[in-house]
Design a protein that fits this description.
The complex is a heterodimer of chains A (628) and B (234).
Chain A lengths: L1 H31 L6 H18 L2 H31 L4 H23 L15 E4 L2 E4 H23 L1 H11 L1 H5 L5 H21 L11 H16 L4 H21 L5 H14 L28 H15 L1 H4 L2 H26 L8 H18 L3 H7 L1 H15 L4 H21 L1 H4 L5 E2 L5 H4 L1 H23 L2 H11 L1 H6 L4 H27 L1 E2 L6 H14 L6 H19 L3 H15 L3 H14 L6 H10 L1
Antiparallel strand pairs in A: 1-2, 3-4
Helix pairs in contact in A: 1-5, 1-6, 1-8, 1-9, 1-10, 2-3, 2-4, 2-8, 2-9, 3-8, 4-27, 5-6, 9-10, 9-18, 10-11, 14-21, 14-24, 14-25, 14-26, 15-16, 15-17, 15-18, 15-24, 17-24, 21-24, 22-24, 25-26, 25-28
Chain B lengths: L2 E10 L2 E11 L4 E5 L6 H8 L5 E8 L2 E2 L5 H6 L2 E4 L11 H8 L12 H7 L1 H4 L11 H13 L5 E5 L7 H17 L2 E6 L2 H7 L2 E6 L2 E7 H5 L2 H7 L3
Parallel strand pairs in B: 3-8, 3-9, 6-7, 7-8
Antiparallel strand pairs in B: 1-2, 1-4, 4-5, 9-10
Helix pairs in contact in B: 3-6
Classes of the chains: A mainly alpha (628), B alpha/beta (234).
Chain lengths: 628, 234
């Protein structure tokens, strides 16, 4: 009994940091409507800065002073980021905001390694809280008791701040109606900056307070951000009380889940989240939001199927690509096959995002499931390659069917957070369930059969499958199903009122996208001869998002070009520098800020302008659209 | 002139909404902006306070050019705005709603306090701690006016104050507007209801399809039933 009680207290102590970070995320979202992906990075920075300060300053004041100073320093960095970057993208579609803040996360991950090195750092114990308290023979670290008390204190302090100060009242008012607050003479810029500073301060404080409990390392940002997303989805984005209750709930589920399912403890959290989403899609304490802000059109060029000339040109390009084995060596063919596979992957996400308006931040889950599907069929069932390739993607389809059923209940940022959390859960199952998946060691020795073994044959296989998949997705885009999907994207209410079963359509689209991603993953498994948990990791999901964005999210063929350019650049970059995350992060931020239409979008609008340059009225409407 | 607007053109995306709007408001004057639904009354107000991103033209307030200033600066210089949809902060109490509107006292403009506003709108004084979302339409309309007055404006743009209110509340609204005028606040009031406008205004403009098509005193408008019938009758 005492053991369970101690386990309960450990859960409560873990909840403190989680609550600090989640409440910061919630406060920032409430006012600025930005889901700050970089929140985990600020948490991590808080821990690193506090580590350095506590190493230099001694004594009780030195330790506690360092914790607070670290949070203030990181908050100042946050203010800089808000003023330089976020102010430029407050009116951008939410996908761009998520991506830009993710780019920041990548940059911070590399910078942290540059400054503090790649090794785990073990911080000092807190003065006055070094010992443990005995509880019926079980030890409870006294620092845990301090954290347990801290959570409610911070909750109370935030409550007072928001109820009793003019600043708090303005923030609550702005959470509801930003424009009206400006129309009453409040400078929004200042309000946004101060809100962001508070949110980042809380995240950094959460990180700094972790150093006596946990080692500081450069992957702690992603771990916390996934948990925080789960917390705010359960508690309700924008609710501080919700963040507190959900943080306690998730921490307790983690603490006890380890006892129930030692290898796959995250399952329990997932189940609870699923139940909450079914019962209250906007979270326990959240409010049902008005329909999410629609993504404004960046480009005004309507979609149309290819003309016969363009069809011939595409065929010619395909034939040209098929000539590669006659002119180049094995390495180039390997790269070529990988690019063809990523065209499939990017096209599947693009279908979901551009046609369906559903920006998934965890699309790699279905890519990876396809790869693991092949691995299970080939290694365990011993089926021939062609059967594996045909059936393997069905695991991706199954995953998409299960997760998609929940995810399409939500939209916008909730959808993005939920898909990310699902992907992370799939990843951790692959990582933790060693008996079946081999864990971190993956499943090895997965080689193509003779007919596809040579690099040129495999390249042709990948190219052929990718051409078929891209054509199929295009066909679906311009089918009645595709029109219904676009109708749902543009106006859920109106399409429901003309008899479209919107959720069902979106769910079907999710399954289509998951299955096609699985096809890519299946080929990828044979290309690499192995599968690893990283085949479904966050960074792969983000790679796909960047490919779509780079190509142009509001164009039909964008993903193809995005995948080719990005993958080629990425392979080259990794061979050139150790700081590929830093470069990639800068690259993402730059695309979002200066180049949001993507490659195909820019090309199309230039061609469109040329075509319509003759009548004089056209540029006016184009200008209006641009300014909106 | 307190406020003078000249050649104001506004757009929502590709749609051109306002065409060369011109209006002038004298010190202490109450001016009615009349027109049917969708004629451009609200867009005119929203353009003056800078809530429409695409606006061109000259907007002078107390001798200063505000045509490119951001919304919060325009409002802080003493130009208050009461939106048509009321836009009460529903989670905030009456007192908190007033607090959001509070600005420093301004020389040359009447100064309002909560107590004064509770005298002007006695209903509000009885529900200081009630959340805005649990008030009737009439009470919300009073709160939104009181909230704007907390900024101590010297001129207020009042968008359709009588819309959707019961006759009894409309009477209170007339009294409140006349009290604001007596205190020294200049007003532009947009209305569809000619009868209501007559009770409060010195002069009137009529707007139709984004253009000003009549300008004159209330007496001049009375003398032109043809104009009234062409542009205002329902």
């Amino acid at each position: 009994m005492a053991f369970y009680f101690v386990q309960f207290l450990t859960g409560l102590a873990s909840a403190a940091s989680l609550f600090l970070v989640a409440s910061g995320l919630s406060i920032i979202f409430g006012v600025t409507r930005i889901v700050n992906f970089a929140h985990g990075a600020f948490y991590m920075l808080g821990a690193y800065v506090a580590f350095s300060l506590t190493e230099r300053l001694s004594g009780a004041f030195g330790f506690w002073g360092s914790i607070v100073v670290a949070a203030v320093v990181v908050a100042a960095i946050g203010v800089f980021v808000e003023m330089v970057l976020l102010r430029r993208i407050y009116h951008a579609p939410e996908l761009f905001q998520l991506l830009a803040t993710f780019g920041l996360t990548l940059m911070v991950e590399d910078l942290v390694v540059l400054i503090w090195g790649p090794d785990d750092l073990v911080g000092r114990r807190a003065p006055g809280f070094k010992g443990a308290v005995d509880f019926f023979g079980q030890n409870i670290p006294s620092y845990d008791l301090f954290l347990i008390a801290l959570g409610p204190i911070v909750l109370g302090a935030l409550w007072l701040l928001f109820q009793r100060t003019r600043w708090g009242i303005l923030v609550r008012a702005a959470t509801q109606d930003r424009d009206m607050v400006a129309a009453l003479g409040v400078n929004q810029k200042w309000l946004f900056t101060s809100v962001f500073a508070l949110g980042v301060f809380l995240a950094a404080l959460g990180g700094a307070l972790q150093i006596p409990r946990d080692a500081v390392h450069h992957a702690m940002d992603l771990r916390i951000i996934v948990e925080v997303f789960v917390v705010v989805v359960i508690g309700g984005l924008g609710s501080i009380l919700g963040a507190f209750v959900a943080a306690v709930l998730v921490s307790e589920l983690n603490a006890f889940g380890i006892l129930v399912f030692p290898t796959i403890s995250l399952i329990l959290v997932f189940l609870v989240m699923a139940v909450v989403l079914v019962v209250r899609p906007w979270g326990l304490f959240g409010k049902k939001e008005a329909p999410a802000r629609r993504t404004p059109g960046l480009t005004v060029i309507p979609w149309r199927p290819l003309s016969s000339v363009e069809r011939l040109a595409s065929l010619a390009a395909l034939a040209f690509a098929a000539m590669l084995p006659f002119v180049s060596g094995n390495y180039a063919l390997n790269v070529g096959a990988e690019i063809a596979i990523f065209v499939i992957f990017a096209a599947s996400l693009h279908f979901l995002m551009a046609v369906g308006g559903l920006a998934s931040f965890g699309h790699a889950a279905y890519f990876g499931l396809g790869a693991y599907g092949v691995a299970f069929l080939a290694k365990i069932a011993g089926l021939p390659m062609i059967v594996c390739l045909l059936l393997g993607p069905l695991l991706g389809a199954a995953g998409a069917a299960v997760f998609g059923a929940f995810a399409v209940q939500l939209s916008g940022v909730y959808f993005a957070m939920l898909t990310l959390a699902f992907a992370q859960i799939v990843w951790s199952i692959a990582f933790q369930w060693v008996a079946v998946t081999g864990g971190d060691n993956g499943i090895l020795g997965l080689w193509p059969e003779k007919w596809a073994a040579s690099p040129s044959h495999f390249y042709w296989l990948a190219l052929g499958v990718s051409a078929v998949v891209v054509s199929a997705l295009r066909l679906i885009t311009f089918s009645p199903f595709g029109y219904a999907l676009r109708a749902m994207r543009d106006s859920p209410l109106r399409s429901e009122s003309i008899g479209i079963n919107g959720k069902r359509i979106q769910w079907t689209a999710f399954i289509i996208a998951g299955t096609t991603a699985g096809i890519g993953g299946a080929l990828f498994a044979y290309l690499k001869g192995s599968v690893f948990p990283d085949n479904m990791g966050i960074s792969l999901s983000v790679d796909a998002l960047v490919m779509v964005l780079l190509g142009g999210v509001e164009t039909v063929p964008g993903a193809i070009f995005g995948a080719i350019v990005y993958k080629a650049l990425n392979i080259w970059l990794v061979s050139q520098t150790d700081l590929s995350k830093l470069v990639l992060g800068i690259f993402i931020v730059l695309i979002v800020v200066v180049f949001p239409k993507g490659i195909v979008g820019v090309v199309e609008s230039v061609m469109h302008r040329r075509r319509t340059a003759a009548p004089k009225a056209a540029p006016l409407s184009a200008k209006m659209e641009g300014a909106q | 002139m307190k406020l003078s607007v000249a050649n104001l053109n506004s757009h929502y995306g590709p749609a051109h909404i306002l065409f060369d709007i011109g209006l002038e408001v004298g010190e202490g004057e109450v001016v009615a902006l009349l027109g049917r639904n969708g004629a451009g009354k609200s867009t005119t107000f929203r353009s003056i306070v800078g809530l429409v991103a695409l606006r061109e033209g000259q907007i002078m307030f107390e001798g200063k050019d505000i045509s490119t200033a951001p919304t919060h600066e325009i409002v802080r210089s003493g130009l208050g705005y009461v939106p048509e949809e009321r836009r009460i902060f529903t989670d905030l109490t009456v007192e908190e709603n007033l607090e959001v509107g509070r600005q420093k006292p301004r020389p040359g403009a009447p100064q309002w306090t909560r107590e004064k506003l509770y005298q002007l709108f006695p209903n509000l004084g009885e529900m200081k701690n009630r959340p805005g979302g649990r008030m009737s339409g009439g009470e919300q309309q009073m709160l939104t006016i009181a909230r704007t007055l907390m900024g101590n404006p010297s001129l207020v743009l009042l968008d359709e104050p009588s819309e959707g209110l019961s006759p009894k509340i409309v009477e209170q609204m007339v009294d409140a507007i006349l009290a604001m005028k007596t205190a020294g606040v200049s007003l532009v009031v947009s209305e569809q209801n000619l009868h209501f406008a007559k009770l409060i205004s010195d002069r009137a403009y009529i707007i139709e399809r984004g253009r000003i098509c009549f300008e004159g005193t209330m007496a001049e408008l009375d003398a032109r039933p043809d104009i009234r019938d062409a542009h205002l009758s329902i």
